[in-house]
Task: inverse folding
C-alpha cells in the first residue's frame, strides 16, 4: 500500500447497545454523554483529527451484527487501499493511534493494536483482505480474518501507549470509568 494513499476508517455504529440499556441506561450507549459530548461524537472527532478518510456505518434499524457492519462499511468504500475497523464505542481513542495503525499497514497487511497485552482497535486491513471482509456476517467481527492471516505471518502486533484503544463502552459502569480516565489525562 503506498504511503500516499491512506486507509479508510470504518466507524461501526450500528449495534443495538443492549448491554448498556440492560444495565439501567435510558439512552443508546453511543448517545450517552461523556464530558458533555455523546460517545460517538468523541470517536468522530478523533477520526477527523487524524486526517484519514472515514466512513460511518449506522443504518436505520441496525445490522445483523459486527461482521455485517464491517462488510457494509468495506463495500461502501470499495476503492480504499485498506481499512481501519473502529467500533463507535471507543470514545477515548486518540487520533495519533489511528495514524499509527494506518502507517503500520505499510509493514504488514493486518495490524492489531495492543495496550498492555490487551487486543484493541482499530484493527487494520490492507486491500488484499477485501473479499474476506465483505463476506463477514453475524456478530463475531473480523476475528476469523485476523486468525487466518496469522499463519502466513501477515499480522503485525502493534503496542500502543493509548488506553483508548481498549476502553470501550458496553455498560453504564464503563462510561463512568471512561469519565474518570478522561479526567486523569
Result:
Amino acid at each position: 500500500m503506498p504511503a500516499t494513499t491512506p486507509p479508510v476508517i470504518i466507524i461501526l455504529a450500528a449495534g443495538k447497545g443492549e448491554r448498556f440499556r440492560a444495565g439501567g441506561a435510558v439512552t443508546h450507549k453511543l448517545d450517552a454523554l461523556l464530558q458533555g459530548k455523546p460517545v460517538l461524537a468523541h470517536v468522530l472527532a478523533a477520526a477527523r483529527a487524524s486526517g484519514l478518510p472515514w466512513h460511518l456505518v449506522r443504518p436505520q434499524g441496525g445490522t445483523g451484527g459486527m461482521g455485517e457492519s464491517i462488510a457494509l462499511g468495506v463495500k461502501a468504500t470499495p476503492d480504499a487501499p485498506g481499512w481501519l475497523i473502529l467500533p463507535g464505542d471507543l470514545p477515548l481513542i486518540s487520533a495519533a493511534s489511528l495514524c499509527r495503525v494506518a502507517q503500520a499497514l505499510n509493514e504488514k497487511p493486518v495490524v492489531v493494536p495492543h495496550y498492555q497485552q490487551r487486543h484493541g482497535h482499530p484493527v487494520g486491513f490492507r486491500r488484499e483482505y477485501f473479499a474476506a471482509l465483505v463476506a463477514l456476517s453475524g456478530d463475531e467481527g473480523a476475528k476469523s480474518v485476523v486468525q487466518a492471516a496469522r499463519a502466513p505471518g501477515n499480522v503485525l502486533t502493534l503496542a500502543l501507549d493509548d488506553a483508548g484503544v481498549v476502553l470501550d463502552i458496553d455498560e453504564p459502569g464503563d462510561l463512568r470509568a471512561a469519565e474518570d480516565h478522561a479526567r486523569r489525562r
